[in-house]
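Need Glycine amidinotransferase's 3D structure for a figure. Predict it.
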Amino acid sequence: MPVRPSPQTASPGAAPATARPTVASYNEWDPLEEVIVGTARGAARVAFEPALAAYYPLGDPERNFGGAPFPQEDIDRAERQLDAFALRLEKEGVTVRRPEPVMHHEGYTTPDFAAANGHAQTCPRDVLLVIGDRIIEVPMAQRGRFFEYRAYRRLVKEYFAAGAQWVAAPRPQLAEETYVPGYTTEDTYYDFADHPALTEFEPLFDAASFTRCGRDIFCQPDVVTNRFGIDWLRRYLGPEFNVHIVQFSDRYPQHIDTTLVPLRPGLALTNPERPFKDDMADFFTESGWRLVDAVPSVRTGPPSTRDVSNWISTNILMLNPETAVVEAAEEPLTDLFRSLGIDVIECEFDAVFRFGGSFHCCTLDIRRQGELQSYFG
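Structure prediction for Glycine amidinotransferase:
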């Protein structure tokens, strides 16, 4: 069914009301009205490639692994949890859309690289960036995710037909020049800032490397996002937005949504295992923000676990400034939120983790109430 703006009513004789944009989202906390929830159907494990080198030191025999389908029972269990999550959002009054499953089991070749197979369409937050009424297809650094945008094209075309802006960042080549040769995360190169995984050959970024606070957008250069990509987005958005680079002490950073998690104006979770390396903490606190240490997940193993971060607990979705969706087993985080005056909706989601993330990763805000504002002095 085509997506159309919600009709507006007006009293007799009044000027026509302006229809609310179909796509409108400026931050991570305003009341959620419409969202895309991903799917695990069609998912596969990507083969080793240069963009994954951060997680496999030189000499690690697992650098030779090839791609493979996920076991069907894992897909089915994850999909049941995704379906239950989508149903719960609908019960909360949120319109939920789902992508079209794309089978990622086949390999593909471009003029610049070959991939044994693709990955999934479980995490729309990685692939698309919504800022206001703009939907941006991002230039992802992983070869196995090159065609992932295809799962969302039907939805994006509907949103465009209903008035949204739609742009694709420059499609990357992902050639050998894109990656730092022989990249490793051995102790010699512990400081990521001094030894990035990507060159500046072309603009690259995942959407989940950015978090939105109205006119101020925060991002970190990481294993899938380079400064060329940040510069491209900054120039595209123009002076209406301030794109800030934030750096944390993190051996292999990827995405910001388990490191800096805005909850509402003036309140954000931070990761005590990944402290700020720059003065951005002062930028927040001097603007009246409270930064609260998150708690690690009870679902996962030690920090070396490759399938999922041990901070997956913080990958939450804010339905509004007073309500968060939290994984059902994460009682320490639930207790923390309630101490902050935030209600919690608990959903089981552990089967979804291995497909790329939790509630924030597996959703994409399409429309939230509220307008563009500045939350910093």
